[in-house]
From TrEMBL:
It comes from Geomobilimonas luticola. Its EC number is 6.3.4.13. Residues 107-313 form the ATP-grasp domain. One of its GO terms (molecular function) is phosphoribosylamine-glycine ligase activity. SMART domains: GARS_A, GARS_C. This is Phosphoribosylamine--glycine ligase. It holds the Pfam family GARS_N. Its cofactor is Mn(2+); Mg(2+). Belongs to the GARS family. InterPro entries: ATP-grasp, ATP_grasp_subdomain_1, PreATP-grasp_dom_sf, PRibGlycinamid_synth_ATP-grasp, PRibGlycinamide_synth, PRibGlycinamide_synth_C-dom, PRibGlycinamide_synth_C_sf, PRibGlycinamide_synth_CS. It catalyses: 5-phospho-beta-D-ribosylamine + glycine + ATP = N(1)-(5-phospho-beta-D-ribosyl)glycinamide + ADP + phosphate + H(+). The gene is purD. PANTHER family: PHOSPHORIBOSYLAMINE--GLYCINE LIGASE, PHOSPHORIBOSYLAMINE--GLYCINE LIGASE, CHLOROPLASTIC. It is an enzyme of class 6 (ligase). Pathway: Purine metabolism; IMP biosynthesis via de novo pathway; N(1)-(5-phospho-D-ribosyl)glycinamide from 5-phospho-alpha-D-ribose 1-diphosphate: step 2/2.
Length: 423
């Protein structure tokens, strides 16, 4: 088979790495890809939002299956377009990808189908939003309605912060069009986990549990990012919590989307807040998480290609997934200043040394090539991911990989996976 992966981040590097291992695959393309991906696949210089260009390439090269990594092409309707031309593609159709593309749609869907979530209201004007903030009190969560690259969520600790956030978003300063509507919701206490599942619109197959670290600094402090690290399994997802998440979150959502005439096919990601035996849904994503994808795929024993193909063909009833017993931990190495302003073009040292450490994979997220050097070109630059017999072993090995790599201003959290150790 020939497979095209769309995207250029750490998630796509992990997907390409896993897909390339399949005996069913003879050629992998990635558009636009990155230097790390280029070592495993052929990078194709087509942007993720260039739908006609991607379609033309897939048709010209007789691509057997296209796998969509990021949310943007899904929200633009790439799956609908490819299916119109009879091409197999893994991902949610445009009307289903709205579960991520609009926070307001997602919250209204949860309310209608009794998916447990935080109390909320949706606003397009500042004054009523402030009145609701005053009613709920702080801390409080302010979310841009549209896509904001994982950064459109602000947890306001004070009234002033909350008022500033809604004012910034609704005036179009903070996230442009994405912030023209805001969701203001109650702050939930507990521990977060990422719950992902494959679905064909009817059947649901859960992936292993994972936990992401959103805040930029140790101890979950500082502003939210696209994710500073992740690990799997997540001990907070006990068998009882898993059962509850499947029944009350995944099942109700997949059935609800079907009832709305928006059958959901692809991978569905639920961000959960777990407090004792209570499970509430923070958000949905229409794709693999980044960085959760990296440890999850390192733990996946099964060939991923038959699974992706079965989803694209609309029937996963005969699919089963096997997992390695080992734990996996991903530590994101970011540019100094991220998620705010950061520099690009710093030379990265030590990639070869890190790659020689057993059971360590360095997934590229924001890199470029300049002459003979690999340089930084994004906020999140690398995802150093390691397997270990225990979470402790995986943490130690991942940080061994991190210690081998350096560049000017590099920043990473030093406590990825510590919540698992505390359990």
């Amino acid at each position: 088979m020939k497979i095209l992966v769309i995207g250029s981040g750490g998630r796509e590097h992990a997907l390409v790495w896993k897909i390339a291992q399949s005996p069913l695959v003879k050629k992998v393309y990635c558009a636009p890809g990155n230097p790390g991906i280029g070592q495993l696949a052929e990078n194709v210089a087509i942007g993720v939002d260039d739908l006609p260009g991607l379609l033309a390439f897939a048709r010209r090269e007789n691509v057997d299956l296209t796998v969509v990594g990021p949310e943007l092409p899904l929200s633009l309707g790439i799956v609908d377009l490819f299916e119109e031309y009879g091409l197999k593609i893994f991902g949610a159709r445009r009307n289903a990808a709205l579960i991520e593309a609009s926070k307001a749609f997602s919250k209204d869907l949860m309310k209608k189908y009794h998916v447990p979530t935080a109390a909320y209201e949706v606003f397009t004007a500042v004054e009523p939003a402030i009145a609701f903030i005053d009613r709920l009190g702080v801390p409080i969560v302010i979310k841009a309605d549209g896509l904001a690259a994982g950064k459109g969520v602000i947890i306001a600790q004070t009234r002033d912060e909350a008022v500033e956030a809604v004012t910034d978003m609704l005036s179009g300063n903070a996230f442009g069009e994405a912030g023209s509507r805001v969701v203001v919701e109650e702050f939930l206490k507990g521990e977060e986990a990422s719950f992902l599942a494959f679905t064909d619109g009817k059947n649901i197959i859960p992936l292993a549990s994972a936990q992401d670290h959103k805040a930029v600094f140790d101890g979950d402090t500082g502003p939210n990012t696209g994710g500073m690290g992740a690990y799997s399994p997540a001990p907070v997802v006990t068998p009882a919590i898993h059962e509850k998440a499947m029944a009350e979150v995944m099942r109700r959502t997949v059935d609800g989307m079907a009832a709305e005439g928006r059958p959901y096919r692809g991978v569905l990601y639920a961000g959960l807040m777990i407090d004792g035996d209570q499970v509430k849904t923070l958000e949905f994503n229409a794709r693999f998480g980044d960085p959760e994808c990296q440890p999850l795929l390192m733990r996946m024993k099964s060939d991923i290609v038959p699974i992706l193909l079965a989803v694209a063909e609309g029937d996963i009833s005969r699919v089963a997934i096997e997992w390695h017993d080992q734990a996996a931990v991903c530590v994101v190495m970011a540019s100094g200043g991220y998620p705010a302003e950061y520099r690009k073009g710093d030379a990265i040292q030590g990639l070869d040394a890190a790659a020689r450490i057993p059971d360590v994979m360095v997934f590229h997220a924001g890199t470029a090539v300049r002459g003979e050097e690999t340089v930084t070109s994004g906020g999140r630059v690398l995802g150093v991911t390691a397997l270990g017999g225990t979470v402790r072993e995986a943490i130690d090995r991942a940080y061994q990989g991190v210690a081998a790599i350096s560049w000017d201003g590099v920043h990473f959290r030093k406590d990825i996976g510590s919540k698992a150790l505390n359990r």
